[in-house]
């Protein structure tokens, strides 16, 4: 049964989707794992990274199922039955890559209409864990890319997950979303004491490799101080800044397959991925 991990930060623009994209690829391609990525953000950046602009537009135009259908499957009657219809879980999964050794990479894409779920959230948080429970046996790792907000989507991610990771870009106001996240996690644990949800660690992302600006140094110090206060671990490995990550996103390729990516950039990311997998007991 799959280990479910949520990637979350209440602050946007921290490189969360880029990190999730690369971790999912690395876990499938290098570690021979069966990986499912779930895009839980209405902006759908992760979906576009995986599919590319044209395939993503084709998906939207085709009316293919997405994460929206997971949350809205009981909201609207069908034309034929006049009543809501139960979603077949496999129909919301896009096959990205499948290798001969059994490893695979699949995606549950998102679309902007997911924002409508936030307007009518009643009794929907349990639909994501139910959906994942029906397909968990087909995967080793499920990575959820969360929206940067406290909402029904956050609660759904918590209820589905065993571990939480927090990507942080060391910059001005880097800690702004962390107190809200701490409160959110604590409230969830109080109300769901029967579920094991572990804060697995903060991942620094986008750090300058050399001549680190004083603002980044101060930001890291502030984040570490807050992490200590809440007893949150911080990963030793860091995903340093590299323009190759943006290039890879445009090319739909992970950093270790991206054109002209420096060897040391790839090596640094492998270290991040190894530590990540060790934290979730998949390595």
Topology:
Layout: E1 3-7, H1 16-29, E2 34-40, H2 45-62, H3 67-72, E3 94-98, E4 104-108, H4 114-117, H5 127-135, E5 141-146, H6 152-160, E6 163-168, H7 178-191, E7 198-207, H8 214-229, E8 239-240, H9 243-251, H10 263-279
Parallel strand pairs: 1-5, 1-6, 2-4, 2-5, 6-7, 7-8
Antiparallel strand pairs: 3-4
Helix pairs in contact: 1-2, 5-6
Give a brief rundown of this model.
The protein has 283 residues and is an alpha/beta fold. It has helices at residues 16-29, 45-62, 67-72, 114-117, 127-135, 152-160, 178-191, 214-229, 243-251, 263-279, and strands spanning 3-7, 34-40, 94-98, 104-108, 141-146, 163-168, 198-207, 239-240. It starts with a strand and ends with a helix.
Task: Jot down its keywords.
283 residues; alpha/beta; Rossmann fold; 8-stranded mixed sheet; 10 helices; 8 strands; 41% helix; 16% strand; globular
General description of the model:
- The chain starts with a strand and ends with a helix.
- With 283 residues, the chain is an alpha/beta fold.
- It has one domain: P-loop containing nucleotide triphosphate hydrolases (Rossmann fold, 3-Layer(aba) Sandwich).
- An eight-stranded mixed β-sheet has the order 3-4-2-5-1-6-7-8, sandwiched between helices.
- Helices cover 41% and strands 16% of the residues.
- Strand 6 (163-168), helix 7 (178-191) and strand 7 form a beta-alpha-beta unit.
End-to-end Cα distance, whole Å, is 15 Å
Order of helices and strands: EHEHHEEHHEHEHEHEHH
* CATH C-level class: Alpha Beta
CATH topology descriptor: Rossmann fold
Largest sheet features: 8 strands, mixed
What is the count of structural domains? 1
Q: Give the CATH architecture.
A: 3-Layer(aba) Sandwich
Let me know the CATH homologous superfamily: P-loop containing nucleotide triphosphate hydrolases
